Amino acid sequence: MTDFDVIVIGGGPVGENAAARTAAGGLRTALVEAEKVGGECSYWACMPSKALLRPGHALAAARRVPGVPVGERLDPAAVLKRRNEFTSNWDDSGQVGWAVGAGLEVVRGRGRLVGERQVDVGGRVLTASRAVVVCTGSVPRIPSLPGLSEASYWTSREATSAQEVPSSLVVLGGGVVGVEMAQAWARLGSKVTLVVSGERPLPKAEPFAGDLVADGLREDGVTLRTGVRATGVSTADGVSTADGEVTLELSDGSSVSGAHLLVATGRQPATFDLGVEQYGFTAGDALPVDDTGRVSGVDWLYAAGDVTGRALLTHQGKYAARAVGTAIVTGAESPAPWTAAVATADHTAVPQVVFTDPEVASVGWTEAEARKKGVEIRVVDLDIAVAGSSLHADGYRGKARMIVNEKTRTLVGVTFAGPDTAELIHAATIAIVGEVTVDRLWHAVPAYPTISEVWLRLLEAYGL
């Protein structure tokens, strides 16, 4: 006898998608979660961070259109209250209700692999007849800095769930979490300093995107310290407190201080205390998987989402989870690319939006990535200056980049940076996934007057 057909470890959006898929396919499925069903995205990442950002964006957008009556500042209490509502006040009963309604059995506790298709949850060993799926996500990667372990610091969790606006905030790291939280709290009234080791924030994005975001942060009063690294952390009195001043010492001999320090230096797969060592893997490293999500060398073990290290994005993890669920239900061993049992897009068409003002929306490869792959490309760059953008905001500033594979005349990468460009990126995703040639794309006529008219200008600049 086995307890279940499928056991999913991790009840965040990725685990929910994998479990829902297998349950819908008639398989008895357990969803094991140590914290809150709904996971990081629902309570400490995607949803609360965007709820913090949106009011500031709305106010800024209104100010860019003459004739719209606006106030001078946000109402922090109202913003935080709305953010709390989006997290259901950190109560996961609604998510549990959904899981039960989807036919899942929710098992509370930390799951650990203890044998073939066996998972220990608080002393209870569950056995699966078909598969175990690891969807444990990722955790903050904390640097080894002298004094950091003794100081009180924020990670993304504290930054998205704080119930008061900090008087001042030092943010270490210029990735997505760093820039989004720097802008959100600056617009809510905090004095923010962002420390970036490189020339600009968002080092993985096209350089022009990082530059535009840096300009936007400065306009919101954020102090940017670029080209410096953190060398140590200290507190005002040598004692760590929740609201005491924290000082970040920098490689140029200077320092910056704030009431709080947010450490936003990346994330790593949550494979600690999971039992992966018995299968030859190292705790803290990603689980290597094929496109069906099957873990290398273990035919009954699957994984999806951040834990695989493939694309650390909620939507991409959910996509991979749906492929895993389909592969398990159908028994697919080597399904063809672009079928529902494989996460083919992980390699060619991963979309991402940085929800700052200006937004950065991208899909596919950057110019640097395309050249590194040896692809013969042509890069088309344009300012976003069309009728739709002029109507959208006075003084609209934005840029677009289109990267074309010259041999196939198809797109391999697109980046937009500018206010409200997020909704443009799905068209680019479809073009890349569908391998639409620029000649055919010419006949996808953008509506006038919208910002999407930039597509026409990009193709004209290409030479059509």
How would you portray this structure in words?
The protein is 30% helix and 24% strand. The protein starts with a strand and ends with a helix. It folds into three domains: 4-38 and 92-140 and 268-345, FAD/NAD(P)-binding domain (3-Layer(bba) Sandwich), CATH 3.50.50.60; 156-265, FAD/NAD(P)-binding domain; 358-462, Enolase-like, domain 1 (2-Layer Sandwich). It has 14 helices and 21 strands. Helix 1 (13-24) packs parallel to helix 9 (314-330), helix 3 packs antiparallel against helix 4 and helix 3 crosses helix 7 (176-187). The protein has helices at residues 13-24, 39-44, 46-63, 76-86, 93-101, 156-161, 176-187, 207-219, 314-330, 367-372, 387-392, 425-433, 438-441, 454-462; strands spanning 4-9, 29-33, 104-108, 111-115, 118-121, 124-134, 138-140, 168-172, 191-196, 223-226, 230-235, 246-250, 255-258, 260-263, 267-269, 301-303, 351-354, 359-364, 377-383, 399-405, 410-418. By secondary structure, the chain is an alpha/beta fold. Helix 8 (207-219) links the parallel strand 9 (191-196) and strand 10 (223-226). The strands form five sheets. Strands 1, 2, 3, 4, 5, 6 and 16 form a seven-stranded mixed β-sheet that branches. Strands 17-18-21-20-19 form a five-stranded antiparallel β-sheet, sandwiched between helices. The chain is globular, with a radius of gyration of 23 Å.
